[in-house]
Write a structure and sequence with these properties.
The protein is mainly α. The chain is built from 14 helices and no strands. 17% of the residues are buried. The mean pLDDT is 86.
Amino acid sequence: MKQKTYRLTSDADIKKSKRRSKINRNVFIAVMIIPALYGIFRYVAVNMYSILLAFSDGTPFKDPFTFRNFNMFWTEMQGNGTLAMALTNTLQYFLVGIIQQFLCYVVAYFLYKKIPGHKVFRFAFYLPCLIAPVISTAIFMELIRVGGPIYKLAQELFGITYNDLLSRPESATHTIITYMFLSGIGTSYLIFLGAMNRIPKEIIEAGKLDGCSTWREFWSLVFPLTFGTYSTFFLMSLCGIFAASGPILYMTQGGANTTTLGFWLFSQVMGDSYNYPAAVGLVFTMLGIPILLLSRHIINKVNPEVTY
């Protein structure tokens, strides 16, 4: 039988090991400090400077401190100016996004139930995600243009004719919203489907034994057990409630009263205007934070987190 031999660690080996460990630790700190410094610059320095811009008419610390930008914002929001219109359009896009998210969840449920042809449907729903947004937008604009396929179909079947839908204020925003609604449900349904597949089969089988219908199974079993995933997506949507938008730049370039808050901020910054947009952004950020926190509190009260 082979006998094991043990070698005593000398003081020199211990010092060498400590030195190597110290070098590795210093290298790790040096590598990790790079993203830390970037985070400080990106999320503290830049945002802090943006906040200071809101309280100035020019360069912070050089020009006088003022509340003029906030007074101008309040005055414009009381009328029917561009910002009021942009806010209305933004909330419309947000509402459509929430509806689309729920439809995405319903689609995931039907795929979870493995309806006939569910594999084909799963691929068909994912297919629009493979097409670049610019291409899908161009296809949609070609379909609805005057003289296009949809125009000719409406004219021949129903005798309906229309002018350019994207050039008239009364139809442009609704046309873009329609495109956003029809452009696909995105990839969220895959995450919803993954959450549903994690539900223990015994729970579903117990529900069937108790005479649970498909409708009751959806609302009383599947939805509560996957509510954590759904509420996460809902809260993420709320984070961007004032940033909801569509392909406005490509379709209308902001014309025909289609401006949203995000597009308005973009156009202002592109025009080298920073102080007033900074004030507007700060106001809507301060409005969004309590909305998000209150919604999270209500969600946790209505349906506490479920583990299984």
